[in-house]
Amino acid sequence: MMKEKRIPTIIALLILILGIMSGVFLIKNTPKLFAGAKPEIVPREVKITNVTEDGFTISWITDSQTTGFIQYGTNNKDFPFTAEDDRDQLSGNQGSFFTHHVTVKGLTPSTNYFFRISSGGKLFDNNGQLYQVSTGPTIQGSSRESDVAYGTIFKQDGSPAEGVIVYLTLANASPLSTITRSSGNWVIPLNLARSTDLSSWVIYDKEDSVEEIFVQGGPAGTATAISVAKNDSPLPPITLGGNFDFLQVLPSPTPTLSPTSSISGFSLGKFATPTPVLKIINPSQREEVNTFTPEIFGTGPGGERLTIVVESPQKIQGEVVVSPDGSWRWTPPKSLSPGEHTVTVSLPNGQRVSHSFVVLAAGEETTPSFTSSPSATLAPTPTITATPTLTPTPAMRSSLPSTEGGVPRSGNLTPTFLFFTMGLGLIFLGILSKFLWKKI
Known about the structure:
Elements: H1 9-34, E1 44-49, E2 56-66, E3 68-73, E4 81-84, H2 86-91, E5 97-104, E6 112-119, E7 122-124, E8 131-134, E9 148-154, E10 165-170, E11 176-179, E12 185-189, E13 210-216, E14 222-228, E15 238-239, E16 243-246, E17 256-257, E18 271-272, E19 279-282, E20 287-289, E21 296-299, E22 305-311, E23 315-321, E24 327-330, E25 339-346, E26 352-359, H3 413-439
Parallel strand pairs: 9-15, 14-16, 20-26
Antiparallel strand pairs: 1-2, 2-5, 3-4, 3-6, 6-7, 6-8, 9-12, 10-11, 10-13, 13-14, 17-18, 19-21, 21-24, 22-23, 22-25, 25-26
């Protein structure tokens, strides 16, 4: 009598369990195995700056011009809010840039926020883990007297460098940043700088405190500068690709040939600096400011007397004489009320220039949701378990981890279905094997 051949029950169970585990593993990891992102849209050099009790700024660069915004929320699974690039918030349209600077507003003090970056329609985190940042506590008392650092960034061809990111750090201060305007101008309010733990205003010397500046222009290049506070308003021009030391002596303006000078024979002619045009540098058009006494400054013809008028519910007027170097500055003698204001600066010859700006109320919160363009494609939200905390860097040289190896979250139905079918096939094969062995 032939002995019936049977497959051991334990082997059949192992085949069954192996089939189930293989199917589950492949289904779960298919997005990671098949997700793809062009290297040129991967966010790099991600930094957190400008952290306050109700906001923060996220900045990064990409190797190609692409759209960018962030998704954020107060837990690691839901991201109900989005915030767009500062330029998109201003224009109302979604643009493509090499540099990206996203300011989030209207947040809750002393609260931890999770976020991820959308770049070129794909979502990126920090090497498989979410980014985190905590807002600071509310500092009791009003903000300090206005004190700003400002200057101009140029490309190597001498043209204004628009859309480059300027990072500024003071000792024991949370880092600050801004993005240049079309003129290449930048302004950073130092009076809003907080200590590294965000619990108080940073203490610094308005004359001798050292400032480190890093300019990030993406493919246009970078630049560094070091200065003391007394030389930062304005800081001498910075050209991308250079390293500048403004600690001691400010460079003199580059002389230009006067139109009236003679250039005949061996005559070198007379040199003169060009007459600065009447301009308001700060506040910029439609800018939101967080102080009731903003410092208003700009350029104009040296020695001329300017009339400055701030109009809103109340009207405040003053006069200032432009300094010989063509700069002027003025601070309202009394606090401005929250809301929209218009500042007009005029010369005796009738020339004038105006800017509108908004003074935010203390603790004012704006709607935290900025709707992204409908054309952006968002991937399904995976469950994240690991959530390391990223805190603002105390110094510019200690940047946050790069997302060069960031994991894009995207799905693909075809391979998912393929591996799901393979898993089922393995399960069926195990059952079939047991059945056939019973028949032998």
